[in-house]
């Protein structure tokens, strides 16, 4: 039988101001279409940057007063199917009903357990067909609270295509929680579900354009991801399986103020992200900017187009400098070999990224035009079905593919904040030698 979350003899009624005006998400729509774009290399930015929106502390008060240290949005990680590899941290029992003024949700099962939080599959208590993801973390004894930053980012990009819809957030005396849209398998699992361990070129190019759009939205909202990789993007469910969603804002950081002014780089910063994809600046303990997110995006592009990266089997915890050296080599004597199997335009894209300055806004539209140019040269249409839309077995197999590419944080005792740092208000990566090795499972029905 189901239970109702109670404390001190009473039913917990969380009246979180975060969830005001929250509506039930609409019925899944059609896949995202890719609009034709010009191939001119002289295109300027089509979208002007907007000032970032940051919810006030008052908006987030129901999640608690503690400062956030980092956030790990765990969509999915497990070695096999939906069975978590760890015991849930929040001891939230199946059948428990969470009551909030935005709705009531019943816990169906635990679908993800990481070192700091759990993700549960929940359904609307009044309509079991409506399913959501609910992320929970303990109030006490939590080494790294994660939910506040997730809520901040999701609210900052509210209404944008390709980000999970935020439903509600609140807390009890024992745990904090955040209810959000449920999504499907991540791109990493989908890639490894294919025999060739890589996407077809049409699918890869189309996916890369969508992920680039997500980064543009995130950056224009004032946030860096700092952990761009295939497992942090997932497809939608049902008819939305042509839409790529951006997930996991565990290492997100504000990089500009409310007026759009970019914070100056700090003298030193943590080595963080995921070793396979992290930027050269992060390897060198330098502060990151949008350029670094695009560099990680480029490594992801190579992986989706060609398969595993040349340094994918190197243990980054022990040899991150070796990985850094390999990344430097693809800009020198190893460039031709690395670019083999990728459209020529990606050689140009890497050069563009490497030449970007810390304060420079990426030329997203020019990168889009180069991808369009590559498709045109290869006589590819960017409107044809994606690999998993052509073969349903890929989706089924992705449900059982294990996860790779864990997020890593090796701060080396280099704090992320500082008295004058922009992260004091919301986040700080100051945990010494904090290596995160969480496991994921894909959010699904």
Mean pLDDT across the residues is 77
CATH superfamily of the largest domain: Transferase(Phosphotransferase) domain 1
- Largest sheet strand order: 3-4-5-6-8-7
Count the DSSP helices.
11
Helix proportion range: 25-40%
Please give the CATH class of the largest domain.
Mainly Alpha
Query: Judging by the overall fold, what is the CATH architecture of the largest domain?
Result: Orthogonal Bundle
Strand content: 15-25%
Number of domains: 2
Distance between the termini: 21 Å
> Which blocks of ≥5 consecutive residues have pLDDT under 50?
1-59, 64-85, 410-445
Task: Tell me the major beta sheet.
Answer: 6 strands, antiparallel
Properties at a glance:
single chain; 445 residues; alpha+beta; Phosphorylase Kinase, domain 1; Transferase(Phosphotransferase), domain 1; two-stranded antiparallel sheet; 11 helices; 25% helix; 15% strand; disordered N terminus
In short:
Helices cover about 25% and strands about 15% of the residues. The protein is an alpha+beta fold.
Description of the molecule:
It holds the Pfam family Pkinase. One of its GO terms (molecular function) is protein kinase activity. 25% of the residues lie in helices and 15% in strands. It is α+β, with helices and mostly antiparallel strands and 445 residues long. The protein folds into 2 domains: 135 residues, Phosphorylase Kinase, domain 1, CATH 3.30.200.20; 224 residues, Transferase(Phosphotransferase), domain 1. The strands form 5 sheets. The protein has a 6-stranded antiparallel β-sheet, covered by helices on one side. Strand 7 and strand 8 form a beta hairpin. Helix 3 packs antiparallel against helix 5, helix 3 runs antiparallel to helix 9 and helix 8 runs antiparallel to helix 9.
């Amino acid at each position: 039988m189901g239970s109702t979350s109670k404390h001190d003899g009473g039913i917990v009624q969380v009246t979180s101001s975060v969830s005001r005006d929250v509506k039930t998400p609409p019925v899944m729509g059609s896949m995202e279409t890719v609009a034709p774009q010009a191939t001119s290399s002289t295109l300027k930015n089509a979208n002007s940057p907007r000032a970032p929106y940051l919810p006030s502390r008052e908006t987030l008060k129901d999640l608690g007063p503690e400062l956030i240290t980092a956030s790990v949005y765990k969509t999915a990680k497990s070695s096999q199917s939906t069975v978590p590899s760890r015991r849930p941290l929040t001891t939230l029992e199946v059948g428990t009903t969470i009551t909030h003024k935005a709705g009531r949700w019943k816990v169906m099962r635990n679908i993800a357990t990481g070192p700091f939080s759990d993700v549960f599959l929940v359904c609307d208590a009044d309509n079991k067909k409506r399913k959501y993801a609910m992320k929970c973390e303990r109030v006490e004894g939590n080494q790294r609270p994660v939910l506040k930053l997730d809520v901040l980012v999701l609210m900052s990009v509210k209404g944008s295509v390709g980000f999970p819809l935020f439903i509600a957030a609140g807390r009890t005396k024992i745990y904090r929680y955040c209810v959000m849209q449920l999504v499907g398998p991540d791109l990493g699992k989908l890639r490894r579900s294919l025999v060739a361990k890589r996407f077809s070129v049409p699918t890869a190019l189309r996916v890369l354009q969508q992920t680039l759009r997500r980064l543009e939205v995130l950056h224009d909202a004032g946030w860096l991801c700092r952990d761009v990789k295939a497992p942090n993007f997932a497809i939608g469910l049902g008819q939305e399986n042509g839409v790529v969603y951006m997930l996991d804002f565990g290492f997100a950081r504000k990089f500009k103020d409310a007026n759009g002014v970019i914070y100056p780089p700090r003298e030193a910063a943590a080595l963080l992200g995921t070793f396979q994809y992290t930027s050269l600046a992060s390897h060198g303990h330098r502060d990151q900017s949008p350029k670094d997110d695009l560099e990680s995006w480029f490594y992801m592009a190579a992986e989706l187009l060609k398969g595993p990266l040349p340094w994918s089997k190197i243990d980054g915890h022990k040899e991150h400098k070796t990985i850094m050296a390999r990344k430097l080599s693809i800009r020198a004597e190893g460039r031709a070999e690395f670019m083999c199997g990728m459209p020529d335009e990606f050689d140009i894209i890497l050069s563009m990224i490497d030449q970007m300055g810390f304060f420079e806004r990426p030329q997203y539209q020019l990168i889009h035009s180069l991808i369009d140019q590559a498709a045109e040269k290869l006589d590819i249409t960017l409107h044809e079905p994606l690999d998993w839309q052509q073969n349903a077995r890929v989706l089924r197999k992705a449900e059982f593919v294990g996860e790779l590419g864990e997020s890593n944080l090796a701060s080396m005792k280099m704090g992320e904040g500082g008295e004058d740092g922009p992260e004091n208000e919301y986040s700080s990566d100051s945990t010494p030698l904090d290596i995160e090795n969480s496991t994921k499972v894909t959010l699904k029905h």
